[in-house]
Amino acid sequence: MPRITSVAGMAVLIGLAGVVVSCAGGDANPEGNPEEAARAAAAAALFTGPAGQSLNLEMTDLKFSTRALSVRSGELVEIALVNRGGIEHDFAIATLPGEKALRVEGKDTAVARGKNEIHAHLRSGQNGVVRLRASSPGAYEFFCTVPGHKEAGMKGTFTVQ
Ligand SMILES: [Cu+2]
Hints:
Elements: H1 2-24, H2 34-46, E1 53-60, E2 63-64, E3 68-71, E4 77-83, E5 89-93, E6 98-104, E7 107-109, E8 118-122, E9 127-134, E10 138-143, E11 155-160
Parallel strand pairs: 1-4, 3-11
Antiparallel strand pairs: 1-2, 4-9, 5-8, 5-10, 6-7, 6-9, 10-11
């Protein structure tokens, strides 16, 4: 049924446009914003002192360097991210109970975005650091939110022990 296929194609295109806009957003007005100040304070607390556990995760075009990350519940964890691909990628977890904060290129950045409690978006060549203290043991999925990337294999399991 070509007509329905065409409508579905339109919906996908519109969806893609929305994702591109949401991913391109930075902090429009960081100064004098109470939410920004609270986030910066929380991030500063998580970014104080050495982490108990350090992980590295590299992104290349349509691949993460590992499909399995494991952390200990209650421990301060640092995840160093780098995008070595030629296009944008991100590290996202939809729901992960506990504290978390993000710095991109050394700058405090909103760790949550849209439906994801962690959404570390990196342009080609950028690096980021997620610090977190997960509070609930379990297996969580991490993935790239760029359309098509998760389906192409940019996903893995984030285990909280
Ligand atoms: Cu990606």
